[in-house]
Amino acid sequence: MHPKTVQKLWNDWRRFGLGFIIGPVLGGFLGDLGLRVPFMVSAGLTFLNFLYGFFILPESLKPENRRKFEWKRANPIGTLVALKRYPLIFGLLGSLIFLYIASHAVQSNWPYYTKEKFDWSLKEVGISLAVVGIAFAIIQGALIRIIIPKLGQLRSVNVGMGLYLLSFVLYALATQGWMMYGIIIIYCLGSIAGTGLQGIMSGIVPPNEQGELQGGFTSLMSISAIIGPLVMNNVFAYFIGPKTPFYFPGVAMMLGAVLTLISFILIRLTLKKEMIVK
User: Fold this and answer.
1) 160: CB partners within 8 A, 6+ apart
2) Is the dihedral of CA 29, 34, 35, 41 positive or negative?
3) Which of 20, 107, 123, 218 is the most buried (most CB within 10 A)?
4) Is the dihedral of CA 152, 153, 154, 155 positive or negative?
5) In the chain, which residue ranges form alpha helices assigned H by DSSP?
6) For residue 125, what are the contacts with CB-CB under 8 A and spacing of at least 6?
C-alpha cells in the first residue's frame, strides 16, 4: 500500500477512534438524564459539524484532480453505476454489502443483545463501546502500519475476514459479559480486511476518481444502514420473543457470521477472477 494511503487511513481512523471513545461514554451518561437527551445533543453537534465543514474546512482535492459536478453521480446508485467500468472494484463493492449488513449485528444490536443476555446498563454499554473505540484507534492508528506491510494487502484481507467471522461466532456464544471485551479485540483486528481491500481498490482508481471510490464505500454503508438494522433487530426480537421455536439471543451475531462468510467467498472469487489471487 502506498505510504500516502496508509497515512490517510491512519488520520481517518484516528479521528473516528477518538469520536468512538468519547461518544458512547457521553451517550451512556446522557441517557441517564433521559432517553431523548443523547439524540438532542447529537443533533446539536451535527449542526456544529455542518457549520465547520461549510465555512472553515478547506477543499482537500487539488484543482487539477477536480471534475465538473454532475447530478447523475451525486447519488448512491449513480456512484456505484459509475464504478462498473472497473470490474474488480465493482465486484468487491458488491461483495462488501454482505459484510456491511453483517456489521449491524453489532452496530445496531449491541445494546439490546448485551441488555438481554448480560443485563448491562446504559453506562456499561457506553463503556464497552468506548473500549471498541480505543481498540480501533490503537489498531488503525498504530498497528495497521506494521500489520499491512508485514502481511501484505491480500493476506490482510484473508486474515481480517477470518477474524471477523470468528468474532461473530464468539459474540453469539459468549456466556459472560466479561468475555465480550476479549472478543472486541478480535473483532477490531478484523478491520485490517477493510484496510487491505481499500488499498487494493485505491491503487486501481486514478487520483481524480478517488472521491468517487470513497463515495462508493459511503453508498454501500448507507444502503446497509437501511437493510442491516431491519434484518438484525427483527431477527433478534423474534428469537427472544414468545413465538420463537427456541430462545437464542445470539442469533443476529450468528447471522452476521454467515453473511461474513458469504462476503469472504465472493471477495475471493472476485479477486481470483481478476487474477489477483491464484
Assistant:
1) 189, 190, 191, 192, 193, 194, 195, 196
2) negative
3) 20
4) positive
5) 3-31, 37-55, 76-82, 87-107, 110-118, 122-138, 144-151, 153-173, 177-189, 192-202, 210-238, 251-273
6) 24, 28, 110, 111, 114, 115
With 0-12 / 13-18 / 19 or more C-beta atoms within 10 angstroms meaning exposed / middle / buried, residue 238 is middle
Mean pLDDT of 59-84: 65
Rg (CA), the chain: 20
pTM of the model: 0.79
> Cell numbers of 241, please?
420473543
Contact predicate 83/216, CB 8 Å = yes
Please list, in sequence order, all residues whose beta carbon lies within 8 angstroms of the beta carbon of residue 105, skipping any fewer than 6 positions away: 168, 171, 228, 232, 252, 253, 255, 256
Contact status, residue 189 vs residue 212, Cβ threshold 8 Å: no
C-alpha cell at position 219: 453508498
Residue-wise burial string across 219-228, b where 16 or more C-beta atoms lie within 10 A, e elsewhere: bbeebbbeeb
Mean pLDDT computed over 145-166: 92
Sequence-separated (6 or more) residues with CB below 8 Å from residue 253? 105, 106, 109, 113, 168, 169, 171, 172
The owner of cell 477474524 is 163
Q: Which three cell numbers stand for residue 138?
A: 490503537
Reported confidence tier of residue 198, pLDDT bands at 50, 70, 90: confident
DSSP string of 146-166, one letter each residue: HHHHHH-HHHHHHHHHHHHHH
